[in-house]
Amino acid sequence: MASDWSFEPAAVSNVFWQRKKEFELACDTYGEWVLFAVTDGEFRYRIGQSEGEAGFGDLVFCPPETEFRREVVRPLTFHFYRFRWVPVPWTPERQAEADPAWSPPRPCGAVAVRDHARLSSAYAYLQRFENAEEPRRLAVAQAMFRDLWQLVCIEGLVERSDEPQADALMAEAEQWIRRHAFESLRLRDFSDRHGLSAVQFTRRFQAAWGQSPIDFATSLRLTKARSLLLETRLTLDEIARQCGYENGFYFSRIFTRKMNVNPSRFRKMNRL
């Protein structure tokens, strides 16, 4: 019988760090749970037995009283949360499912979020309220944190339900899109070669990866675009071409729709 309670994170504090080139301490230990939610750049980490590299799309959790070793690989922009786990009653929907995956084990190390569009939207809202008064800012930070945690739980459920039906062709499709994302990408080149209609391809990819092929390619392009905006002086047309778009106008329209801020404004707000 499932427990009547689940647990979710409650933010104690939130700080937004921009373009951090190195950590003041290569190793630190915290008295409470912490989260690094990376919006740009990369860093290496080692937390207990967990180690790797984290970038956009990764949420890096560290339990209390655990050594957190870290090194910046590319200038790092991230939200730093201190938080605690609080009990919450199960909803009727959760009790009906009686599925403990709704409250997965407390993580240690990086957890990858696949829905980059939703992640980008959450980060955009956090940044919009960065200069608000403290009670309001922390309330927004907590709401976005709770939203991201629920997304992690839901993606975990999807991943578990898909495990017995792993789709090798869609794994190949994911790698193919990664290789060609920054070119003049034609998804039909892949679907036609494997005898799939556009609708069949989209449905199978969505089932395997939680987003459509075009949304996945767009997330890869925008990740690269953010880095180029902050790390170079390239024009929008030049960035567009390097990210697979025909021109700066079209690139700007896509970037603004997905990020809730236009490229020029994003560059001005985040570049040091």
TrEMBL record:
SUPFAM superfamilies: Homeodomain-like. The keyword Repeat does not apply. Keywords: DNA-binding, Transcription, Transcription regulation. InterPro entries: Homeodomain-like_sf, HTH_AraC, HTH_AraC-typ_CS. SMART domains: HTH_ARAC. Residues 171-269 form the HTH araC/xylS-type domain. GO terms for molecular function: DNA-binding transcription factor activity; sequence-specific DNA binding. This is Helix-turn-helix transcriptional regulator. It comes from Cohnella zeiphila.
